[in-house]
## 1
Amino acid sequence: MTLSQGRSYLAIPGPSVLPDRILAAMQRPSPNIYAGALVDMVAGLWPDLRALAGTAGHVASYICNGHGAWEAVNSNIFSRGDKALVLVTGVFGHGWANTVRGLGIEVQLLEFGGAVAVDPAQVEQALRADPSIKAVLMTHVDTASSVKSDVQAVRAAMDAAGHSALLAVDCVASLGCDEFLMDAWGVDVMLGASQKGLMCPPGMAFVWFNDKARARCLGSNLRTPYWDWTQRANPEEFWHYWFGTAPTAHLYALRESLTMILHEEGLPQVWARHATLAHSIWAAFDAWGQGHPAIHLNVPNPAHRGHSVTAAHLAAPDATRLRQWCEVNAGVTLGIGLGMATAEDPHATGALRVASMGHVNAHMTLGALAVMQAGLSALRIPHGLGALEAATGVIAAHAWQP
Ligand SMILES: *Cc1c(COP(=O)(O)O)cnc(C)c1O
């Protein structure tokens, strides 16, 4: 017997849970893409996309996933032979660096080890040493390690070095989850995708850029007609937005998502909800790890942790056993350990990730934690007690009071 029937919960860090109302919004016949309701609706998306990023700048949208958004940024800001400084706090930093290298751009990596945030002092030093660097690329929250870096501190380091490089930030995992203010934080280019905090299916991505980035990159020779952000951000005709047919069903999903985030719940409340749910997950792991140090969060310093995903370690292969138990017995699918392979544990069976990304509320997170508690007991994995009391205590302390 298993207890997995009922509504399952995909608690992996993307694709995230699709709200029923977003699915429902997509269920419609193909609309006219030349005039009428779709064209009118799309006009209203751009102010909301700017508000989501905290910018008055430009937005270009693409029919692709996050990897495509990397390519979009690369091809718009770089010319062949340029040099990029890539700040790496996990697998996704390396992923972006690889796409940059693949276009013939020189990459200097600054690696921070996958459990701590970017050290701004090292960024300043690297920039002082090389005035030719064209752009600094960083990941706000690296989904593999769950490390969050301080974007404002990196901007301050760039200013302290008196360096003119552009600052480009991957916000795929943090957009609509962790606070992010593009203009206030001095970010020149940022990117996001539809299937994480935005609660939509994979298949749409966004690049925001300011006037400085646009002017600086006018002559970029890697820019092909398809990836060019110029027309997409300021189209003369509707088809320029996506350089071809619009992603019709996704656009209705996006409309619903932006309404939920910006006009119903409100972005500051969305950030606060993610913060509280993440803290409850951290509290549970801290309790499980009491007296059992094999169980611990990947990122020791809470200030360096993102709120949309939490990476954790157990003794190998207990993380894999626990994930399988939770899925088969309780309908909760946890994320695999990504980039956590070691010589002793080549398949990262001692690492897992718990998402708290997008359409997630207290009963989903507490349910996932309770299921994990049951799994730890059923599998006789040694662990500390009091995890559910700790997690529910966080929720009780931060929730609305009548
Ligand atoms: C998910 C993710 C990506 C890649 O997105 P895909 O849609 O899988 O291509 C890139 N960066 C970060 C930080 C992500 O979380």
Note: Residues 267-288 form the longest helix (22 residues).
## 2
Amino acid sequence: MAKDGRGAPVGRRVMLGVLGLGVLGAATGSYVQNSYDNLLAQISSRDPTGVTGLLPGGGGFRFYSVSESIPHRSDQDYKLTVDGLVDRPGSYSLADLHAMPSTRLVRDVQCVTGWRVPHYAWTGVKLSDLLDKAGVQPGAKALRFTCFDGVYTESLTLDQARRPDMLAAYRMDDKPVTAAHGGPVRLYAAPMYFYKSAKWLSGITVTDHVEPGYWEHYGYDVDAWVGKSNGRDDDPTS
Ligand SMILES: Nc1nc2c(c(=O)[nH]1)N[C@H]1C(S)=C(S)[C@@H](COP(=O)(O)O)O[C@H]1N2
Ligand SMILES: [Mo]
């Protein structure tokens, strides 16, 4: 796992992320359960999601990273590990993922802070296919996602992960996922706010409980269904 950058000065990166929170800094480390409206008010006054900015030519996407730079991994060096409560832990190269059945989804990308990119195509491997290959053991309840930025994490319940619209995505708009957008492979959790879609995906660990992800420690809903957690957005799947 150290090869995924976890030997790097993670503490400093995490601090940079926390400093980026601004007014939310006061909530550091605590689990803010019932202040979602408050959180959204703070978000609209100051976008807290770390280093952000409009990407030139990004087609309406904003760039988000809680680490201080864009981590790079070549297509040749890329590996996705699948481990934890599985019969066959493994490691998949980009070529391995390309060789598996692919799914292309066209959906609206929706960030919880309000911006949206309508009708955008993502292609990749269904998480359920990776889970079937790995052989999920009894007692498994959730997935934990780790990233080769060494900082970001996300989670899904096993039931959520088995949905057909949950992908390990390697193409966006029918082209390779760029490094800025989390390439070579990022999570694409289509029915959820975009913070679920962990960029620079490096590991999937099957666990017996949901371990909330990076932003979820600062109050974001652990179940990030679009339209259900901030009560304001339409559900693009309905
Ligand atoms: N590794 C990593 N993944 C991440 C983030 C991040 O900071 N680091 N930010 C999340 C958030 S809040 C959003 S809105 C999207 C932004 O993706 P984009 O930069 O491709 O627009 O990535 C999500 N995945
Ligand atoms: Mo976001």
Note: The pocket of MTE (ligand 1) is lined by residues 49-50, 61-66, 111, 147, 149, 152, 181-182, 194-195, 197-200 (CB under 6 Å).
## 3
Amino acid sequence: MSDTDFIPVFEPLIGDNVLPLVSECVTSGWVSSEGRFITEFEKKFAAVCGAEHGVAVSNGTTALQVAVSALRLPAGSEIILPSYTIISCAIAIIEAGCKPVLVDCEPDTWCLDIDQVEAKITPLTRAVMPVHMFGHPADMRRLEALARKHGLHIIEDAAESHGAEVEGRRVGGIGDMGCFSFYANKIVTTGEGGMVVTNNAEFAERLRSLRNLAFRRDRRFLHTEIGHNYRLTNLQAALGVAQVDRIEQHIEKKRWIAAKYRKRLGDMPQLILHVEKPWARNVYWMCGMVLADNVPFNAAEFASRLRAVGIDTRPFFLGMHQQPVLHDMGLFKDERYPVTERLAERGLYVPSGMKLTEAQIDRVSDAIRKILG
Ligand SMILES: *Cc1c(COP(=O)(O)O)cnc(C)c1O
């Protein structure tokens, strides 16, 4: 490998164990949203999360949308979420007629700050949406206690954290509902895809209805509720079944990559790497890092210097309170979340894909040392 070879930030690993399954879809003609792989994928993935039910949907964003809708909250209900996240979370809340309320995140786990959640609870608060960030779980122990005390629902966004744990309990199966994405860069991928897992049979039933145009069982084409077509296909589910069978290997690889980077970069005062709290299992979806204050440039400059030597990176999220489209809706206009702003300005993630080699990790680490040296 030469110094100019390009190292992509991720490449999905699709094992050849998928081929007989996809081939079965093609030869049998079961290519749309019915077929045995859908139910098999739902069962297997729900089991991975320690949940009873899985409802497969078209992507992680629609998973969040049907999950919030399934709560059937009165219009104007408030849902608390971290400012530091993807816009999918805010969209799901707004589209259900609810009001997103932000809290900042923690500087080390990058997950929502539970102390701030308590401070934002009002008589209109009905739910909290923790986001398990970059593979690290939010502190669900404290959040569950808070939710119990105030009678709040919990919808977990576990899109980046397949298999992450809080004191041995898998994320997604802890709250009322847990939402996952199977986009190409996620730990289990179906290309595009998503799932909501739950231990509540009533929610599972509603989720199934909402993903399928809310057809009624008693009289097809009679509707008493608005649903959507958010179905996953059997072809995608075939990929999912093959991937979920290898999820532990994928997680081991992610943890191996993170450990290698830590070994090579962990001593640098210029960099803050992601943590793993003693109560948590971080699955290190991607290896994020944040420039310390003593570095005289920001993540955008860091990224362009890495790109110049053939190393691909991605920036961190931009805060929900920093989104013009949400300001236009009258949301978050004068709000400030300093930890989020700092992560957005100084954070990025480096190559962490399933096909990454030790030699590539060495080259990325050497380049980082040189740039920050
Ligand atoms: C990827 C992701 C989503 C959205 O998933 P899509 O499948 O891309 O719609 C939601 N939340 C988080 C935290 C994500 O990383």
Note: The longest strand covers residues 53-57.
